[in-house]
Write the structure tokens for this entry.
Amino acid sequence: MAFWRSKKKSDDSSTSNTPGDSNSAPSDDSPETADTGGLFGRFRSGLEKTRRTLNTDIRDLFKDEGRLVDDEFLGELFAKLIRTDMGAGPAEELRDEVAKQYRGRKVQLNDVIESITEQTRTMLRQDEAPLNLGDPPSVILVVGVNGSGKTTSIGKVAHFLTTSGKKVVLGAGDTFRAAAVQQLTIWSERIGCDIVTGKQGADPASVAFQTVDKALQSGADVAIIDTAGRLQTQSNLMQELEKIRRVVEKKLGREPDEVLLVLDATAGQNALSQAKGFSEAAGCTGIVLAKLDGSARGGVILPIRRQFSLPVKFVGLGEGIEDIAKFDADSFAKALFAD
């Protein structure tokens, strides 16, 4: 299971040693190896808060002899599911599936956990969503609000690409925050890749232009461009995002290969409005769910997948440079409700 998908068939052979899903250096492990215990364990750790809350809450609904699935039970189950930040819609779907299977019957805890796990897996399932990389240089724009984990996510993706032999150029387009430029510069030094920066307060679109130009001149495989963190409700800043995209298209001669939206897993339902606003302004192609480090209530991923057609491409599992994994619905659903 490749970390990216090349748009050129002739490049397929060059991506055979793409990074896997473990948090170690890239290897030639098969998809089955990468997607079993290791990935499940990492998701399980990242979903620790949600998992503990769910298991404690749902277990409290049961007595030793089981529980009758009636309106009272279903109402209590719905209330417990809401606490994961999944929202009313997904919680209703999970509750209704339990009702469909077991209404009027006495069930055990494992019966309910099995039902909601399978339904969650179905709700999260998506087509394979590796990075779409076209003719070099491929260009990836990264968008999101301040504090979402955007800059850290860029460093993690850049690390994966460089360790698999790709030449990467970073663009520090968040020119309004000196700390963001400094952080990305540190990432570039650790990774060993070039970076383009501008003066504080400089036009982010100009940095994007220079980054694409640098990638073209240096023969880079991928350019990853940070954009100024902003709130999706600030129309002037969202217009600036559109400007960055237009500048990249003009210099590159085609649309960016990816526009990744970084969402903070701790943001709860506010992540939904972020996804809507950024999708409309920047033409997002995928989501990076950041900060799934044990403190987040990971149920928010359900309404994101339910309301938007955007695939979840990666999940950030910590602050380390290798703490990122390709999203896998089966492992995620199992980890969400695992005891």
Notes: Residues 8-36 have pLDDT under 50 and may be disordered. The radius of gyration is 21 Å. Residues 235-252 form the longest helix (18 residues). Residues 16 and 31 are 12 Å apart (CA to CA).
